[in-house]
Amino acid sequence: MGKTTLKSLAQALNMSVSTVSKALNDSHEISEITKKKVQEFAKKHNYQPNVLAQFLKTGKTQTIGVVLPKMTSPFESQILEGMQQTASALHYRIVIMNSMESEDLEKAALQSMLDKAVDGILFCPIHESSNLELAKQIQKTTPLVIFDRTNYPIDTHKIGVLNSAGTYQACKHLLDIGRNRMAIFCGTRQGITATRLLGYFEAHSDFGLPVAPEYTVYCNVKSISELQADMEQHVKKLLQLPNPPNAIIGVADTITTHLLGVLAKLEVKVPDTLAVIGFANTDLALSLNPSLSTIRQPTKDIGEISVTKLVEVIQKTNRSQIEWEDIKLPTSIQLRRSTIG
Amino acid sequence: MGKTTLKSLAQALNMSVSTVSKALNDSHEISEITKKKVQEFAKKHNYQPNVLAQFLKTGKTQTIGVVLPKMTSPFESQILEGMQQTASALHYRIVIMNSMESEDLEKAALQSMLDKAVDGILFCPIHESSNLELAKQIQKTTPLVIFDRTNYPIDTHKIGVLNSAGTYQACKHLLDIGRNRMAIFCGTRQGITATRLLGYFEAHSDFGLPVAPEYTVYCNVKSISELQADMEQHVKKLLQLPNPPNAIIGVADTITTHLLGVLAKLEVKVPDTLAVIGFANTDLALSLNPSLSTIRQPTKDIGEISVTKLVEVIQKTNRSQIEWEDIKLPTSIQLRRSTIG
DNA sequence: TTGTATGCGTTATCAT
DNA sequence: ATGATAACGCATACAA
After folding, report:
1. Rounded average pLDDT over A134-149
2. Which residues of B touch A72 (CB under 8 A)?
3. Which phi and psi (to 5°) does residue A222 adopt?
4. Which of the following CATH numbers is that of domain A163-297+333-340: 3.40.50.2300, 3.40.190.290, 3.40.220.10, 1.10.3210.10?
5. Separation between the CA of A29 and the C1’ of D12 (whole angstroms)
6. Nucleotide nearest to A33 (CA to C1')
7. Which ranges carry the HTH lacI-type domain (chains A, B) (predicted)?
8. Is the pTM of this model over 0.90?
């Protein structure tokens, strides 16, 4: 009593392997009666097709590889959950490779996908040109879709959010509540940060607000502790300006949420002295000090659409004729006590 | 110029397929000179072995399946990250299936692993007996290791934490700072909750504190909003008692962190009126209102050890002789303003 | 409607 | 030291 295979079934049923195979695949060239017979017998003997053999035969693994810079912050893990769920629904499985913000690891991750053990790749590059050549190379043979970091110069589907609009909304809200001196805390000097800054500048221009260069702050996001120390210095410096800001916008989850901790430590009153709003997908906004006004990204949708689009490409026969889409999903804004007191 | 395979290499080199295969696998029966020749040629032509064929041949997929109830909270995502990293180091990949706290989905997830597309399974059951029979069934053919929920009645390695000690420590700390009336907020009535409650009772017994039954509170954790509403009611009720508690212990990440939001909403002073401490792996403890005293679980270690132990089993030839370990890792306690003001 | 034969790309066994 | 050949389990073109 070894494992049940097509062969063993065929033997037991006194039929040929191909008949059994076709019957189990519900082929039209098999009579209903034998189909039923075979299928029942197979079920009874708990037959499980060896997917590896199927894979080898069909060249498809029903597997999607995801390469992304981190996976523990709410933004990423929510996206991953969305991907996992829709992939499951489409009968795909997800394999995650964490590039951990390192270009070398990212390269290794991408290369490990290359061995044809995945049908397609969902890629969130570390920065706007990291491993670009490799990605282009891969794309020649394996469908690849970009998510989140959509300003990555490559021809394929891209799924991200309307970053500049998110910041614009935040600025508008701050202005509405009388905060006209807004600092903005950024991460690295590229990609998404740049787009979010754009919304900030646009809003200032539209609303006739002057832009103070010292209000644009770049933080060291290498590690949480470095980020905290760095933000502490920046806040102190800003508050000593002759014309200090009365609001801060955070351009990323980590920055915005940890900024509250820094301000609490410095005993800066929020929102009295500084209103705070920013991009954040934490579900702890209500438990923060004070409850945090957020610009939320539709993480579940990002995950879902990324998978859907990728599978679309995978299943397309003539891949050359696809019109690549650059999808930008809208953000939403939630107002809480960190801005409205 | 199709894909480079053993066959194509052999043809080009005018050698046999088996020679090439052996040369690439560094076999001792191949001369150094041909080895070098083959390996260089293969590299030059960017040869990638088809892992699917390898899988079919060897019966190993170098893939580990993870089934767990959720993946977006810090505790779970940190564990997943730990698993992913050590798996990578051991040349395994991780496939995640999210049971989403549903027994049916859990069953489907486990069954989808059954088709032999994974070499082993890491399983965190929804509750202490969910899909127990199926798990036992699977275990006959596929190595399976339990993590987090270690009070699952099955014979295999289990990797979790010393839950009762965690709560015990928290109680001790509360007593040290003069809080002798501690309520405890639990989730469902089973498994881990029970163990953590044990530490609470033990501490009370050891320290000669009376246990007030109304201090043990079970919360509805179906969704965040239900949890918040439910906790709000419980807090109100507790504070109206003739002898209200002066501290609350949360037994899980979500409960503890969201409790702060509820208390903020009710304008209950923390820690003045109620000190708060609890199990939580959020890295936002410092940004919470107020900064949160936590009992932290060694998530990275859980992930790392789980994978290591599972791979150990996978690679063991005579699986029958293994002594199953029930590993309990210590928690650590971080004191912040929610208890020490 | 059913069966036969072949191949997917590897590894492993056995000759040479 | 190298090569021929047979599996692994399945799907499919083709034959009957």
Report:
1. 94
2. 74, 77-78, 81
3. -55, -45
4. 3.40.50.2300
5. 13
6. C1
7. 4-58
8. yes
